[in-house]
Amino acid sequence: MNSSFCLPGSILIFLSFLKDSFASVLELLCWTLQLHKSTLLGSRMSMPLGKQVFFTGVVASGGCALLYYLMQKTFSRASYYQLALEHLHSHPEALEALGTPLNVHYLRLTDKYNFVDIADAKLKIPVSGPKSEGHLYVSSSRDAPFKSWNLQEVFLELKDGQQIPLFKPSGEKSNELKTE
Predict the structure, then answer these.
(1) Are residues 19 and 67 in the same domain?
(2) pTM of the predicted model over 0.85
(3) Which domain holds residue 65?
(4) Which of 110, 109, 28, 100 is nearest to 61 (CA)?
(5) Is the bond leading into 169 cis (omega within 30 degrees of zero)?
(6) Are residues 104 and 85 in contact, defined by beta-carbon separation less than 8 angstroms?
(7) Is 58 exposed, middle or buried (0-12, 13-18, 19+ CB in 10 A)?
(8) Are β-strands 115-116 and 103-104 bridged in parallel, bridged antiparallel, or unpaired?
(9) Is the domain of 70 the same as that of 83?
(10) Best-predicted range by mean pLDDT among 19-28, 132-141, 167-176?
(11) Same domain, 108 and 149
(12) What average pLDDT does the segment 55-67 reach?
């Protein structure tokens, strides 16, 4: 995060996600509009403005819901996300504090702590169990684009403020992750 201008991670993830999936959403919208147009061909009646607004709103809402879901899936597949959850599941003190089974919830994309760019990633993952709930904080970086991610720190903060450290790098490269 050395640059003087940084966008929140959710915006960067959204922009990279749009690059990958905009074509499929656009195809869905075109198909829907063609279907709508084909029902009106041959007819002299035009659709009332209220129905057009409603129809457009339904398509736009469905598209937004699909984008949100796919963004969450993109986050959950990231190697630093997966490794942080592995550290949580293998840490007895954290399991005792939360209880089992553990529930991992969707990230709040509007949270300013969640930040991902080309070299750094910070996530605040909501987790809960029968005994308590909290957030799993993950900090990761990489030396250059398309290189392996390295976990910097993983800790669990419970709702009562207690912090449980799950990972701090020692001098070795055991925290190196696969290239995404």
Answers:
(1) yes
(2) no
(3) 9-76
(4) 28
(5) no
(6) yes
(7) exposed
(8) unpaired
(9) no
(10) 132-141
(11) yes
(12) 91
Give the integer Cα–Cα distance in Å for 15 and 18.
5
Looking at 51, 76, 101, which one is the last position of a domain? 76
For the record, the structure tokens of 5 come out as: 């201008």
- Per residue in 74-87, pLDDT (tens digit) is 888 888 899 899 99
DSSP-derived secondary structure for 10-64: HHHHHHHHHHHHHHHHHHHHHHHHHHHHHHHTT-SPPPPHHHHHHHHHHHHHHHH
Residue 30 lies in a domain: yes
- Single-letter code of the amino acid located at 37: K
Confidence of residue 180 (pLDDT cuts 50, 70, 90): very low
Regarding whether 87 and 60 lie in a shared domain, the answer is no
Two tokens, residue 67: 């984008």
pLDDT category of residue 93 using cuts at 50, 70 and 90: very high
pLDDT at 144: 84
Whether residue 38 sits in one domain with residue 115: no
Sign of the alpha-carbon torsion through 93, 94, 97, 99:
negative
